[in-house]
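Checklist before submission:
- one chain only
- standard amino acids only
- sequence pasted in full

Submission:
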Amino acid sequence: MGLKISISDSIVQALRLPEQRIEQELRRELAIALYMQDILSFGKTRELAEMDKYEFGQLLSLRGVMQHYGLAELDDDFSYARS
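Returned file contents:
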């Protein structure tokens, strides 16, 4: 099951982004916001952002976001290491 979010045309047109980058940038911004609020783990937010661990970690660092590290992240690291 997926989720679609409807954004009005006037907002999409007001975004100062090339059309081909809009979805990618919105996914990244949503991922950062959800991570900052501890709503999603690092692994799930990087999945939402469609970035690998290193890229998403770099993005968080550039934004000044401290990385959380708990059991869920440790489990993600173990799963990643096994693959």
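Reviewer check: The radius of gyration is 14 Å.
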